[in-house]
Amino acid sequence: MARNRIASLIAVAFAVFGGAAMVTAAAVLGETGVSSHLVPDRLADAEILVTAPQRHRVVEDPDIPFPERQTLPAELVADIAAVPGVAGAAADLTFTARLDDIGAVEDGAARGDAIEGHSWDTAALFGTSTPAPGTGEVVFDAETAAEAGLAAGDLVALTTAHGTAEYTVSAVADTAGQGFYTDAATARALAGHGDGEADLIVVDVAADAAVEAVAADLRAALSGTGFEVVTGDARGDAETLAGGTARSELIELATALAATIVLLVGFITAGAIGVSVAGQRRDLALLRAVGATPRQVRRLVATQASIVAAIGLVPGVAVGYLLAERFTAFLAGSGTMPEGLPVALTPISGLIAAALLILTVQIAARAAALRTSRLPATAAVAESRIEPREPGRIRTGIGLLVLAMAIAQSLMPLVIPGEAAFASAATATLTAVIGLALAGPALVRTVLRLMARKSGTRVDAPGWLAAGNGRAYARRTAGAVAVLALAVGLTVTQVSAQSTFSQTAAAEIADGAKADATVTGAISTADLAALNRESGVEAAVGVIETTVLRTYDMAGDEEVDPIPALAFSPGIDQVADLDLEDGDLAALTGDTVALDAGTARLWGAEVGDRIGLVLADGTRVDAEVAATYGRGFGFGTVILAADLVTGHAGPRFYDAALATGDEAAVADWAADVPGLAVETGATVPSIATGMTPDQWLNVMVTLVLCGYVMLGAANGLVAATARRRGEFASLRAAGATQRQVRAMMRRETLFLCALAIGAGLAVSVLPMTLLSLVFLGEPWPQGPLWVIPAVVALTALVASAAIAIPTRKALKMPLTTLVAAAE
């Protein structure tokens, strides 16, 4: 059967090929997030690290890593050193400093750079000939010293979050890329840790001891404390928290992609198998007539489809690995993924993709053969040449219900504020296409019947035949319409939703930003105070970019939402107009937050209420809501008081300072502070002037998905047209010329494209128009105007070529050959 129906089964192979490539690429991303680790750098000699948990545990979901480090008691060093097999242990402390005035070389290359400082105990643990720094002394690594032009005996000014102090370079260590070292007491003071706190505890294993055995003993000794013993590749993530954060983002990205990709793969593959089964209905009916059971028929179709799918699966998986390499390179270049994180190119991703695709093919094939296998043998033979007279009522009813749900989702921006409105409107397109696929046959018949009534006797013979074919084979037509509508709707929705969001955020920032200048760089509390004292500067407010986790109860389980946030020092109302709705922004001090008004209503929070948050270093706080504001897209869902961040995590640099007053005075002040830069106006939050990495990522994914949908649509149309050779033979035998048959097919293509493009625009333009109307006050979808005509033209081109080429090929056959091929 497969050999005799190879034309229709090729569409299945191509659908699986494209699906396997995309699923494999998503699986590689997920596997990279699960199993890959950054290589240890400064602590590479430490075979074991002890750390506090650097992630928030979430029940039944991936844990959420903390962007900032949780500390642990330094007193554990003594307990760890007493474990058999441990040669030594040291508390490790890391902090950030700015390299200011340099005594030896005033214009050193590193002047003003933010560099890392560490406690000397860690370096001393593994033996070094460099003498330890004393009080008021620092030891620089060779690379940083060379960049700054420093040598032993030079004086250097280092600015930390506390302020600026002068130190003597006591020595230059023969190491690279490790910043500088101070004595433990100085490091603890500069890091802002409390007495007895450390970032990590570094363990040196005795030469005659097995690392894993010592690690097991350490885990037993630390049992019940919650602290973790890390060995092997995981040490890189313990040393550099960015690795864990990036891995978590890769898992989230892979999960989001996989959900959409698997749905599309199932949609396209099911359509391709449906066309294949439709071409074999007579064969299947004859099998039923000679005694095959329904189960045997379904197993036959599923096995046949799986064999053909395997042909497309192997090259698809191979292309998927190549696609994953290019994709991860883009992510690394855009900063989404850190350089040096190994990409997991193992067979596991390919096996996952193969299992998912085979399962999808099995389900789609059995579903496509379900009706034919259940029909009595006589009815199956009767239906083997035509479709059922009327679409199934249950299927149509479910489809109409899903379409109603899609309309309700489209209306959500009218009642739901914030980002939830965007998610609901974007999802409405996919929901509507699913409803269209289910209710499509009934809708196609109704539309074509109305068109026939309106046209009356004015339609020519090819048009009359085309309309009749559309009504008689409504399932075939509806399947093609749904897939092409998906391509149109998906493209318009993705482009318009991103444009609407970007324009909404940009408009709110433009309306709310009042700063005359923005200072960027590592800004200490002392720097901010000095800027406020500068003549001509009216106000200067520090800004910290951070992340918080919102925790809440859902059906007895703790749910966690990570939220990017900005923290401001007192005076935010002097540099920004947040469109205050309730409360007082002047009260944004201490353990307080301000919420976007829409989010506050969604959370059920009012001014004076307390909400549970987890800070970036894992500290749980009950923050009081001091105010609610209207410009949440531009300034974020949550705004923190800087005191809330520094009061729990310890002093830290501000990432920027917003200043009002004389811009020249701000620039003059910043010119005397190494490492700081000044820009005109408020650049925090930033207004995107071009495509952001996230937007480029969305565009790339959308193009790939739409390309796959177009490929699936073309395959399905080619297969469906190829199996109409019997129909062409009948028309030729009745006296129709090749030109008349081609004219009929052109009319069918016109009907198909009109229905598909109209449906695709209908399911996308409505939600995108409402989104634009609510947030921008403009009653039309946002985004580049050329996108809609471009996707319409591409859709028409794909459909026309996929129908015209196999039609011409079939009609070139002599009539006798065409009849034989049809049989």
TrEMBL record:
Transmembrane segments: 256-279, 300-324, 344-365, 398-416, 422-444, 478-497, 696-722, 749-774, 786-805
Residue ranges constituting the ABC3 transporter permease C-terminal domain according to the UniProt record: 257-376, 709-814
Domain of life: Bacteria
Residue ranges that the Swiss-Prot or TrEMBL entry lists as coiled coil: none
Pfam families, A to Z: FtsX (PF02687)
Protein topology in the membrane: Multi-pass membrane protein
Alphabetical keyword list: Cell membrane, Membrane, Transmembrane, Transmembrane helix
Compartments it resides in: Cell membrane
Record bears the keyword Metal-binding: no
Protein name: ABC transporter permease
Species of provenance: Glycomyces luteolus
